[in-house]
Write a structure and sequence with these properties.
This protein is of the alpha+beta class and 290 residues long. It is built from 7 helices and 14 strands. The radius of gyration is 23 Å and the shape is globular.
Amino acid sequence: MAKYPSEVFGFPHSNTNSNAKEIRVKHWCPFVDKICYKQSRLIDYPFGVCTAHVSGKEIALCPRRFLDNHTVFTDIAHHQFKTTSDILVFSEVRLKDIGSFDFVMVKHKPMSTAIQDFAVIEFQTGQTTGTGKLVQGLKDYVAGESIESKSYNFGLNLYDVWKRTLTQILNKGVIIENWRKKIYWVVQEPVYKYFATRYNLQTLDFQPQHSTVFALYDLIPHKQQFDLVASRKVSASMDQLFAAIRNNPDIPSVDEFLEMLKEKVEGESQISLQLGRSGKTAAIDIKPHV
């Protein structure tokens, strides 16, 4: 299937009206009304690919994409507090020794600073591999070439997305569950589907007593704009999430790992670290942490 940048500086690639053109010339992000902050060393202007067309779907790549028209915050406010009145949203709220919450939504008493309740909100978008090819798609588009008929050899790295995000889900989720509050993970349907399949969580539904909620959305493509639409909400307890990791059906066989080690011993032992031998420089190293 074709793969290409499908939304550039806030508008579908097919939208060539005067407003979209002006936004692109300014390298502007219409979702926050600021210049695009994404960068690539391969170009000297912002890397303004909001969304990519992959496997027949539009996959959001930038967290700012979820800020479109504040749809997400309005939806979560109605879901959590049954109203949008007396609601404030704060970004990048730090928690000592844990890190930051993307957003905290606060419900306060009318005409008062007294807090009635709050909920945490985190955004998780897709991530690409072979991103240089996606950059080339952007360059071609900016140069005036048609890109929809082409296919650029980049991919989605959903394994890495969830490898990193799952740690956050567990660390923050334990705290929120202990506080008896809610944390909403805003995720696009295709990205969440990989997570649910990998950890055998397809049977999750929404249970109001759960603290961890996956607020799922999708992008509906139109020529003039992509609409961010709420699809459903599912939830999980910490016990369910830890059990999913513990009972991960994708755990590789130890016999397969031992066979791979045997091959290394038989054919590659000269590059391993040989303990107990002197006079030989160890040909072993570690990659820097990023």
